[in-house]
Each structure stands twice: as C-alpha cells, then as structure tokens.
TrEMBL record:
Pfam families: PMP22_Claudin. PROSITE patterns: CLAUDIN. This is Claudin. The gene is Cldn1. It is a multi-pass membrane protein. It comes from Sapayoa aenigma.
Length: 189
C-alpha cells in the first residue's frame, strides 16, 4: 500500500502565515495537489530518466520488497504444518518455514532501507537553509505505513526463523530406579 500511495512527502507550511487553498503531495510514482474543495489532481512523473537516482532506487527497493514478500509467503506456506506438501519429511518442512522467514526478513530490510532513505532525504531538504520555505516538505503517511510494514515483515520473519528444528543431543538412556521390595513378602506374578 505504501508503494502506491502518493503521500510519501507532503508540503509543509511551518513558519508561513499564509493560509493556502491546496495541499501538495509527492510519492514514488506521481505528485498530487488537493484543493480546499476536495478535488485532487495527480500527475504521473513524465520520464523515468528524468527522475533522481535516489527516487529510482527507492522505487526499485520497494518493488523488490513486495516481490520478495510474495515469494516469502509461498515458501513459508509450504513449510506450514497444516499443508500436505512435503508432509513425509518434517525436517525439510521446517527448513522451508525458516527459509520463508529469512526471505521475509530480507523483504522487510529492503522496505526499511527504502523508506528510511527517502525519509532522510526529506528531513535533510527540510532543514537545508537554502531550501525556500514555501517548497519544504514533511513526512507523509506513506512513510509511516512503510516503516510499520517493514517492522512487521522483519518481526514475522523472525518468528518463522525461531521455528527452526532443534538439534537433538544424544544423552545416555535413563535408568529407572529399582522398585522397593514389598513389605508383605509375597511375590505376585
């Protein structure tokens, strides 16, 4: 959802005494202007080659995170205990679940890097003294959704990795304690 949203950064009116009639948003794929009447006009970026390299990299990381997340779902589902696939070998089934967890962690890290990198660019431009006040942007809601999604993907992948089968250690067989002789002196057969 975060990848498709146009609210990666939104216009900041901090320090302005001007009441504006529109709100400006920018995302990975388009920029939008919302009028005070509720009308929204969006414009898709014209050319891929005219975009900044950091925006292109952010796009690529987010798309990679989505694709890795889908692959992680399919791999982890095959490793679930309730699935009939590979039910004859439980160790391989558990390894598939762990491998799905590793893919989820990588997916979450890709999304975390992309959103943090974009957020860092927004923050640096906001505090840059050479940026005009009326062109400053703040964090948009898509960044927060991206951070939450990345955190949940990493957490879910960690839980799947914790389902790793434990190595069984070989202990000597336990010996039972000898039974006490009965006090009646009779043997039962």
């Amino acid at each position: 959802i975060s990848t498709a949203m146009p609210q990666w950064k939104m216009a900041s009116y901090a320090g302005d005494n001007i009441v504006t009639a529109q709100a400006l948003y920018e995302g990975l794929w388009m920029s939008c202007a919302m009028q005070s009447t509720g009308q929204i006009q969006c414009k898709v970026y014209d050319s891929l080659l005219k975009l900044e390299s950091s925006l292109q990299a952010t796009r690529a990381l987010m798309v990679a995170a989505i694709l890795l997340g889908l692959v992680g779902v399919f791999v982890a589902v095959t490793g679930m205990k309730c699935m009939k696939c590979m039910e004859d070998d439980q160790v391989k089934k558990m390894r598939m679940a762990v491998f799905g967890g590793v893919i989820f962690i990588i997916s979450g890290l890709a999304a975390l890097v992309a959103t943090s990198w974009y957020g860092n660019r927004v923050a640096r431009a906001f505090y840059d003294p050479f940026t005009p006040v009326n062109t400053r942007f703040e964090f948009g809601s898509a960044l927060f959704i991206g951070w939450a999604a990345a955190s949940l993907a990493i957490l879910g992948g960690s839980f799947l990795c914790c389902s790793c089968p434990r190595r069984e250690t070989s202990y000597p067989p336990t010996r039972g304690y000898p039974k006490n002789a009965s006090s009646t002196g009779k043997d039962y057969v």
